[in-house]
Amino acid sequence: MPWDRNQMAERAAQELEDGMYVNLGIGIPTLVANYVGDKDITLQSENGMLGMGPFPFEGEEDPDLINAGKQTITELNRTSYFDSAMSFAMIRGGKIAAAILGAMEVAENGDLANWMIPGKLVKGMGGAMDLVAGVEKVVVVMDHTNKAGEPKLLKECTLPLTGTGVVDRIITDLGVLDVVEGGLKIVETAPGVTEDEIREKTEATIV
Amino acid sequence: MQKVYESATAALDGLLRDDMLIAAGGFGLCGIPELLIDAVVDSGVKNLTVASNNAGVDGFGLGKLLDTRQIKKMMSSYVGENAEFMRQYLSGELELEFNPQGTLAERMRAGGAGIAGFYTKTGYGTQIGEGKEVKTFPTGPDGQEEHYILEEGIFADLSIVKAWKADDTGNLVFRKTARNFNPPAAMCGKVCVVEVEEIVPRGSLDPDHIHLPGIYVHRIIQGEHEKRIEKVTTRKREEA
């Protein structure tokens, strides 16, 4: 059985270590916060906050307190606020230990495409290009194939890039792969998924 | 030194003209200068270039200036919340210059700090880096050369921003994540107009707790803000 969204998030949470400052992207990466357990993790929201808390109780939403996905959130007793220039200073400056992001395509050399489909989806990169350029460890959480069953882990990305050679680890519904010299290396498979199945559904070189 | 004005229209008097570059604060609909945007709509100025992280939503925030076709070009990092924006862009009526979010913030900060350009790793090897000067610096973990691209500071004609409180000398305090792009946007304009929820007497803000000193602020108005929430997300009490 491949992992579902929550199981992928749970697996991604294992990448986080005590004391880390972490940025979580929109979608499945947001769910990772539910699985950090007792680990002392500080979440950064690139619109200007360290120490992001859970969603507010109904009736306690504050329009001045949102995350990078524009959702209402809360603060914690460790929270600090700052402006966007300082927020990206700490991102580009390498102070954030890990970023967990979604992806449309990843190439075997670690190239990432996750911001644009020409002629179709023109929303923008937001903070993704800065994050992948500056953050120490970039973990991608994504479906292994698209809806038509075609690989999303490719020899070369076909979509406009977000960054070149930036991805360290990929967590898909089928397993966990690392970007290494010469291609991708399977480091773990989801329960009941074989390495052969991953190879069959991956265009990138598996080493 | 009289910085306090009666209304948004009065505060913008003499500052607006066609074809100008305006830097606007805000992230999504959080911390946007809603009163000043309304006054720019009412003024009828056109062919504006607006540097702002987002473009509002349909019918609110900068979306109002899109509905009236007063904007010629946006400089933004993310515009996915606005159907009218997408329509104008895909039909070629509106120019769009995508900037990575951190690059946009730093370009504004740089403009306000007298820095004409800076090198950043962000965007190297992507569409964003095309046509820009590339330089390497030995910044890798073991002193390896890494690639950087040259980005230019933004020097805006006018800044429109939103703060929480100001004193009458223009010292500003922001609230929570409504700070976002407001300080860098305020810094990069030749003239900066600020709207706040409350103007307090000088001496009542702790000088150690000023987020942006009044030297960057030229005109101030106080007013009522709608502060619309883009995505209300909550948890149920029993989950606590």
From TrEMBL, chain A:
Family membership: Belongs to the 3-oxoacid CoA-transferase subunit B family.
Source organism per UniProt: Maritimibacter harenae
SUPFAM superfamilies noted in UniProt: NagB/RpiA/CoA transferase-like (SSF100950)
Record-linked InterPro entries: 3-oxoacid_CoA-transf_B (IPR012791), CoA_trans_fam_I (IPR004165), NagB/RpiA_transferase-like (IPR037171)
The organism's taxonomic lineage, starting at the top: Bacteria, Pseudomonadati, Pseudomonadota, Alphaproteobacteria, Rhodobacterales
Annotated keywords: Transferase
Record Pfam families: CoA_trans
Single GO term (MF): CoA-transferase activity
Protein's recorded name: 3-oxoacid CoA-transferase subunit B
PANTHER family listed in its UniProt record: KETOACID-COENZYME A TRANSFERASE, SUCCINYL-COA:3-KETOACID COENZYME A TRANSFERASE SUBUNIT B-RELATED
TrEMBL record, chain B:
Key words of the record: Transferase
SMART domains: CoA_trans (SM00882)
Protein name, entry field: 3-oxoacid CoA-transferase subunit A
Matches recorded under InterPro entries: 3-oxoacid_CoA-transf_A, CoA_trans_fam_I, NagB/RpiA_transferase-like
Entry GO MF terms: succinyl-CoA:3-oxo-acid CoA-transferase activity
NCBIfam families found in the cross-reference section: pcaI_scoA_fam
One Pfam family hit: CoA_trans
Keyword Transmembrane: no
